[in-house]
Amino acid sequence: MRKILSLFLFCLIFIISCDYDKTVKIVEIQFPNAKIINMERKIVNTELYRPSKIFIYKDKLVIYDNMNSSLFKVFDCNDLTYKYSFGSIGQGPNEFAFVVPETMNSSTYFEILDKNKLYYFSITDTGAFQVVSPKIVIHQSGPINNLKKMSDSIYLFENGLGADRFDKEFILYNINDRTNREFGNVRFFDNSVKAQNKEEQYFSLSKFMTANPVNNKFAVFYDKYPYFKILSSEILSGLYHIDSKIQHTDFHHHFSRPFSTDKYIYVMWIEKSDEEIMANMSDFNPLILIFDWNGNLIKNYRLDKPIIAFAVNDSNDKLYAVSLLEDDINAIYTCDLNISDNEY
User: Fold this and answer.
1) Would 134 disulfide with which of 12, 117, 253, 256, CB 3.0-4.6 Å?
2) pLDDT tens, residue by residue, 114-141
3) How far apart, in whole angstroms, are the C-alpha atoms of residue 42 and residue 203?
4) Do residues 174 and 117 lie in contact, with contact meaning Cβ atoms separated by under 8 Å?
5) Phi, psi of 10, rounded to the nearest 5 degrees
6) Distance in angstroms (rounded) separating the CA atoms of residues 204 and 137
7) Per-residue pLDDT at 32
8) Phi, psi dihedrals of residue 23, rounded to the nearest 5°
9) Cα–Cα distance measured from residue 122 to residue 130, given in angstroms and rounded to the nearest whole number
10) How many CA atoms lie within 13 Å of 284's alpha carbon, on the beta-carbon side?
11) Which of the two residues, 312 and 163, has the higher pLDDT score?
């Protein structure tokens, strides 16, 4: 009887979510004038060659530096004192074979997905220590992309090319028993994509994701299109479109590297191609858009430095960032934030 009831509830939730997907209307967002935000440059006692992701773990700032050695560099959040580095590329102890920055999480532990093994570390003042045995994360859809933690046992990631059909966009995965569930109807923002093959359809929806386990919500930002979604308990609660002045092309990036706290979602707005960015990196000044978890635009900042990765503390009053400029090989940028709800 219990199994029949569970099956009934699952089917009911699935039917409701399918119907709700169809009724959610696109919310149009227009940017107000951006406020220029001045970043403070801090020289640190180590070199950051190719930083690509920033995490905040308790009172530590962890920067992922995509080098052959010293993959993770740890700093004190308060004064940016360099503490130590850990992790190298390799097959031995304290080495990682293949790490994707978007599969790392920082919550109870600092979590690193290496191929299909999820490692748990405690980041202390003196070192990073593996505290829990690694767990296997594997799925028939292929490599795990955008792994996000929703609870102690439930993780979220995007459906992959190995799926039988590309009609569901996300997967919920129980890391303890490896059960999983596909959900979220695929929605193409360009009708011409429907006639393309599965690989082209999949890559047309290249995305970044960020999760809020406290409220059981997550946000999805698309690279090739000026759209983002917010989902709550597997149900699409909001679909948003940025009223962009630049005509869409396959070469433009729109959103990049979202970061979230329990209260806000932060995301970089690029609206440039790789060629445009690299042609004049020193003038690359992206926007940082701040939304609440109901999709309301709260703040629109223009950075005065060519930032490529950032993080915000839990109190939402300090932003940390890094750039790829050669002059910034040993620099971390910070700025104070002053966020008021319903500003726009």
Assistant:
1) 117
2) 999 999 999 999 999 999 899 999 999 9
3) 38
4) no
5) -60, -45
6) 25
7) 87
8) -95, -15
9) 6
10) 24
11) 312
Minimal CA–CA distance to 292: which of 208, 184, 197, 212? 212
What does pTM read for this prediction? 0.90
Calpha distance 195→124 (Å, rounded): 52
Which 3 state secondary structure label does DSSP give 277? helix
Contact 297, 33 (CB under 8 A): no
Segment 5-40, tens digit of pLDDT: 444 444 444 444 444 466 778 999 998 889 999 999
- Is there a contact between 301 and 270 (Cβ–Cβ < 8 Å)? no
Q: What is the mean pLDDT of residues 87-111?
A: 91
Say whether pLDDT at 283 is over 90: no
Tracing tokens 């569930």 back to the chain, one arrives at 181
Q: If you ran DSSP here, which 8-state letter would residue 99 be given?
A: B
Helix (H) or strand (E) holding 274, with range, is helix 274-279
Q: Does the pLDDT value for residue 266 go beyond 90?
A: yes
In this structure, are strands 264-273 and 287-292 parallel, antiparallel, or unpaired?
antiparallel
Cα dist from 188 to 168, 195, 206, whole Å: 12, 11, 11
